[in-house]
Automatic annotation (TrEMBL):
Domain of life, per lineage: Bacteria
Name the record gives this protein: Tat pathway signal sequence domain protein
Organism: Auraticoccus monumenti
InterPro entries per UniProt: PcRGLX/YetA-like (IPR045793), PcRGLX/YetA_2nd (IPR048330), PcRGLX/YetA_3rd (IPR048331), PcRGLX_1st (IPR048329)
Every PcRGLX/YetA-like central beta-sandwich domain range: 94-463
Length: 896
């Protein structure tokens, strides 16, 4: 495996791009370089680095960056070379130098200055020795109480994001990355937030590319407040823009709704408009202003206009306010002492704007602008010497962010009452555990330092690439050949039985994408997640019923989407999976506080459930996005799990159902061998392959050997971990099986580990056999289980989901009977979570629901819930890959 063809995820983009590529074990040496070529063989500037290695040191995943091209090719070829080829002398480069207590990043057309500390993120940007962007800062608005329902005055405090550390992560020649960390505070840090000090910890990555005028800003916020006392009323990125041009040459552009083909139109305005007047300055003058070009000298205008310019109002301020996913409001005013004038508005702004003139200006925008509402774009002071452009990630005109728990506890003060409530609402409540302290959210923004006002077509392209950024990807065949992410195969409709399964996989993907739109699964905290279970009586997902509401990675929809993308290469599936990974890795996981490193089980509020578990924060769900895009923020989330085993000292995941006297003991931590160890193994494996971390390697391989040494292997259910040594006590001899053990990434991780270690110096004795026994016996039936281990296995459920265990064992051993068992169980359901025979297509038909019992026309597929959809998808994908030929022996329409 050498030369690797690459294609664009969507369409060729004139934009800098960063992407990842996998390599089969032993094909790329540790010190190899790479070249990128166009179809004509010409080389493209390239910066490369390694993101993961195989145990033998060879490259497993590489990451690459190339600058924007005015003429991007449809396809490229990436090839390993004995050493990294230098960037051609004529190619653009980006450099980072320290100067006067700041870092100066020179991309060629623009020099950006980044202070190493203080209240601004960027102090300015210059083009041709002329400043076109002034200070860029983070701003927030804090309230100490919610706004009353009836309105009324509430004091708001304006805070600034203050940088405490700036780190250079990459310094060129093609790509440079600075990481800025800090907190929000007022001029007096001690007086901030009503005297309680700084808050809202942030990480901002500033990403620069050679030859580019664009600064990509990745903003990650940790909400570290007290939900009873801290209410966020606004969160934004503000940039100052020098305004040197005449008022009639100062331009404001704000993006409207993107068309179905992705094209974006703009509100096209000037600070002092000269179109639509009673007197005409001349067509050439009007056209110049509308097109963003300098107007001719006023002496060339019609005198009845030029002599009266002072009587034409100058508009200071503009606002585009996207308060919901379905509508934005536009308004402008001549100054702060005057009324706003409304402008015809629209549905879903592309979230991009421009402010400036012939002397330079700023393009600014927010990705997923309407999807992550409430958002806002502001222009202020456009008639003065310096104007401000603010991208609000939380609009100040929206209701304040209120993260208090949604009910009063309903008297659930002890485990008994909490377990009782679990039986009716499926909500696992515990006082004080519905706490949002430590959750996070990431936004992607852009700033462009322009030499002059860009043409409308350029602005439209800038808005389009913000929403759908450039990404180069391999073809699915190439990903599969690398053998890096478990068991999957390419779509195959060569027989009616295979086609039926493939059709259902497509139906599920299309249905959930449609549900996101129909059910408006959007918003600052919600975008990217899906709902857990459907209520057919109300024709509504159970958004308000305890543990049936937001899914929070329950039963691995993240993995289902990512494997679906790998095998199909579908761009829409990638974007769906990307948004889910952004959400579940940030919002559903704690990044600070007492539960740091743990995630939260499904609930009405993403953070509401008292089950704080590693199965939700699992690295298994984040690795795909990181390796495919080299996204540094996702890398942060993986690094947060450097020592994931320590989370078991904070809380016992099974404390409510224990019958023994166990409390977390660092020398004997109770770790489930399914959801718990699967998440530990994913974190250790990722740490080992990314960083060569010997501690993670030893704990991974050591616990694998320990599972192999347990008398009942994986069937033991739970083992005691010594935190100091990272090893299990192998003396426990019991059988305990949970239907949840294998459905949170354990199947995928175990398959990778067996493939990675068996027959190598890293092989863990007994591990493969322990996993093989578990896979073979789970669906074997009571008699076979009795014969093998002396008793039938308890806790057997979700048979369709577990059909892939039998498939893995069949594939590994060549056992045809196990292969038939896998497909028989998958095809004939036997009471699985979907509660229907999945091969009977008529029972999966989409139904349109209209009429007085629904607020909006919706579609539903009644057998489908997210647990079932995710596990059906994963089982289908893995069964097809492992024992696909055995499917032909199963009649597609019979029930048992």
């Amino acid at each position: 495996m050498t030369a690797t063809p690459l294609r664009w995820l969507t369409r060729p983009r004139s934009q800098a791009v960063t992407w990842g590529v996998p390599w089969a074990r032993g094909t790329v040496a540790a010190d190899d370089g790479f070249t990128l070529t166009r179809p004509d063989g010409s080389a493209v500037p390239l910066q490369s680095w390694v993101t993961a290695r195989w145990p033998d040191g060879s490259v497993k995943w590489s990451a690459h960056a190339t600058p924007a091209s005015d003429d991007p090719a449809d396809r490229y070829t990436l090839s390993p070379t004995p050493e990294q080829a230098p960037v051609a002398p004529t190619a653009p480069v980006v450099s980072v130098v320290e100067r006067g207590g700041a870092l100066v990043v020179d991309t060629g057309p623009v020099r950006w200055t980044v202070p190493t500390s203080g209240p601004v993120v960027v102090s300015g940007a210059e083009r041709d020795d002329r400043q076109v962007v002034g200070p860029v800062e983070l701003v927030s608005l804090w309230q100490g109480e919610p706004t009353p329902d009836s309105g009324g005055g509430v004091v708001r405090e304006e805070l600034r994001g203050t940088a405490e550390e700036v780190v250079v992560e990459q310094d060129g020649p093609v790509r440079a990355v600075l990481r800025v960390t800090g907190r929000h505070q007022g001029p007096d840090a001690g007086a901030s937030r009503g005297g309680r000090g700084p808050w809202l910890s942030f990480t901002v990555r500033l990403v620069f590319s050679a030859g580019s005028e664009e600064l990509r800003v990745v903003h990650s916020l940790v909400w570290d407040g007290d939900a009873e006392q801290d209410f966020l009323a606004g969160l934004g990125l503000r940039a100052a823009v020098p305004m040197r041009d005449a008022l009639h040459d100062r331009h404001v552009r704000l993006a409207g709704t993107a068309r179905e083909d992705g094209a974006v139109g703009f509100l096209t305005e000037a600070v002092r408009g000269i179109t639509g007047l009673r007197r005409d300055p001349g067509e050439h003058v009007r056209r110049a202003q509308v097109e963003g070009r300098p107007c001719p000298p006023t002496q060339e205008w019609a005198p009845e206009v030029s002599s009266r310019l002072g009587l034409v109002p100058a508009w200071e301020d503009w606002t585009l306010d996207q308060t919901t996913a379905d509508g934005y409001r536009l308004a402008k005013r001549t100054g702060s002492g005057h009324a706003w004038v409304t402008i015809p508005s629209g549905r879903r702004s592309a979230g991009y704007g421009y402010l400036g003139g012939p002397g330079g200006g700023l393009g600014f925008g927010l990705r997923h602008f309407w999807q992550q509402h409430p958002t806002r774009l502001d222009v202020r002071g456009a008639a003065g010497e310096t104007a401000d452009a603010t991208v609000w990630m939380w609009s100040p005109s929206a209701p304040v962010m209120d993260l208090r728990f949604y009910h009063d506890g309903l008297g659930q003060e002890d485990f008994a009452s909490q377990l009782e409530a679990l039986e009716i609402t499926y909500e696992d409540h515990e006082p004080g555990f519905g706490d949002a302290h430590g959750i996070a959210r990431t936004h992607e923004l852009t700033l462009r330092a322009h030499a002059s006002t860009p043409r409308a077509e350029e602005l439209a392209e800038h808005a389009a690439v913000l929403e759908d950024p450039a990404l180069l990807v391999c073809d699915p065949e190439r990903w599969q050949a690398a053998g890096v992410l478990g068991d999957w195969s390419l779509p195959d409709r060569s027989t009616p039985a295979r086609a039926a399964v493939e059709d259902r996989l497509d139906l599920l993907l299309d249905f959930y994408r449609g549900q996101q739109e129909q059910r408006r699964w959007y918003g600052f905290w919600d975008f990217g997640d899906v709902m857990h279970t459907y209520d057919p009586d109300r024709h509504q997902w159970r958004y308000d019923v305890g543990g049936y509401a937001w899914d929070n990675s329950e039963l691995s929809p993240d993995l289902w989407l990512w494997y679906s993308f790998l095998r199909t290469g579908r761009a829409d599936v990638f974007r769906f999976a990307e948004a889910m990974t952004r959400h579940t890795g940030e919002v559903d996981v704690y990044h600070a506080g007492r539960w740091k490193g743990l995630g939260t089980r499904h609930n009405v509020q993403h953070w509401g459930c008292s089950a704080k578990q590693l199965r939700i924060s699992s690295a298994a769900y984040r690795r795909f996005l990181y390796y495919l895009t080299a996204d540094e923020r996702t890398g942060d989330l993986l690094d947060e799990l450097a020592e994931p085993e320590r989370t078991f000292t904070a809380i016992d995941p099974t404390r409510k159902v224990r019958t023994d006297a166990y409390t977390p003991d660092p020398s004997a931590l109770a770790v489930g061998l399914g959801t718990d160890w699967g998440a530990l193994a994913a974190a250790w494996l990722t740490r080992w392959e990314r960083h060569g971390d010997e501690r993670a390697r030893d704990r991974l391989l050591g616990t694998m050997a320990d599972i192999g040494a347990l008398p009942q292997g994986f069937l033991t259910g739970e083992a005691l971990l010594d935190l100091a040594t990272g090893r299990f006590d192998t003396s426990r001899d019991r059988i305990s099986v949970s239907h949840l053990s294998a459905v949170f990434g354990l199947v995928e991780i175990c398959s990778e580990l067996v493939s990675l270690t068996v027959g190598t110096p890293e092989e863990a004795p007994g591990f493969e056999q322990a996993w093989l026994t578990y896979c073979r016996l789970y669906l074997a039936g009571p008699e076979a289980q009795q014969a093998a281990v002396g008793r039938p296995l308890p806790g057997i459920s979700l048979p369709q989901a577990h059909s892939r265990l039998a498939a893995w064992a069949a594939h590994r051993t060549g056992d045809a009977e196990l292969a038939r068992l896998a497909w028989s169980t998958f095809v004939h359901d036997r009471g699985d979570v979907l509660n229907t025979n999945p091969m009977q297509r008529e029972e999966w038909a989409r139904t349109t629901v209209d009429g007085p019992l629904v607020a909006e026309v919706v579609e539903e597929v009644l057998p489908v819930s997210t647990n079932g959809a995710a596990q059906y998808g994963l089982a289908a994908i893995q069964n097809l890959a492992l024992v696909g030929d055995a499917l032909e022996e199963e009649p597609a329409g019979e029930n048992r």
